[in-house]
Amino acid sequence: MPFPCATFAVWGSAWLHGVAAPDDALDALAVWAEVHEVVADDDGTATALDLPAKDERATQLAGLLAALRKAGATTARLVIPVAGDVRGLGGSLPLAREAVRAGQAVVVAEANVGIVPDNVAEGIIRWTVFDLPNPTPAEQTPLSEADHGLSAAMREAAGTLASLDLHSSRPGVRQEIKDRAAVAARARWPIGMPQKALRVLQRATEVAAILEVAAEDDPGGALSSSAQLRRSEALRPLADAVRVARCAAIDDAVRALSDHAGRH
Fold it and tell me: Can you list the residues of the chain whose pLDDT is less than 50?
């Protein structure tokens, strides 16, 4: 899955800290769509940030970045929620609902908002800004811990993945996995992006591509519903480890870029 929110969190934070030019941030986000629209979910958020409401003509990303800076924001965070785990979204039900549907969100705690992208048409992403009245403290996993967790989960899931025998049941699966990983790898990052964070992101992307293929693979409907459930349960810890690794890598990158800004 492409992660425009990861790009937004890193480049948005870099721009807010003054270590990236606004045009560079916008160019990086253009990788995911030619057009980016921005609206606020409710009138209160629209008024607070001087953004258009949902029933008004959308503004552009430059307007959102300017609004966040005016609100005193310096740091954005990537959140990857799933049903049953919406930590980091401050208990906001509208935000949690849309973030789970999208599989991603950006939280800007200093501005009390969460932002969710939606691919509304080919080449168009609409970012909706939600009120986040009670932002929860960031739960940050150290990058080394997240990397170790991903490795451990891969070892635990090795038997389940082997039992799927994807290579024989799905011709061209190696190329399919490679192509899926390549989509996410299109992301561009600022100068100073930590190399370890990039390596962990790449590993997580490759594992996520395998999981996506595994989730779709059921040749001829051969698996019973109970077998599908057991397979999903066996692979869930690996999917969770991928989520943690991605968020930890983005947190690490944002922290490194913030430190860089503090030295200049």
Answer: 219-221
2: tokens are 């492409």
Identity of residue 158: A
How far is it, in rounded angstroms, from Cα 222 to Cα 202?
A: 32
Helical ranges in 21-91 per DSSP H: 22-29, 43-49, 61-70
Residues 73 and 115 sit within 8 Å (Cβ to Cβ): no
For helices 4-16 and 22-29, the axis angle rounded to 10 degrees is: 180
Q: How far is CA 26 from CA 4, 20, 150, in A?
A: 11, 10, 31
Strands (E), the chain: 35-40, 77-79, 105-108, 113-121, 124-131
> Taking the mean position of all CA atoms in its chain, how far away is CA 9?
9
For position 164, what pLDDT does the model report? 65
Residue in this structure with the two tokens 């990857």, named with its chain if needed = 80
pLDDT tens per residue across span 127-167: 999 999 887 776 789 999 999 999 999 998 887 777 766 65
- Which of 83, 110, 123 shows the shortest CA–CA distance to 99? 83
> Which pLDDT score, from 0 to 100, does residue 1 have?
62
Report the SS3 class of residue 253.
Answer: helix
Whether the predicted model's global pTM rises above the 0.85 cut: yes
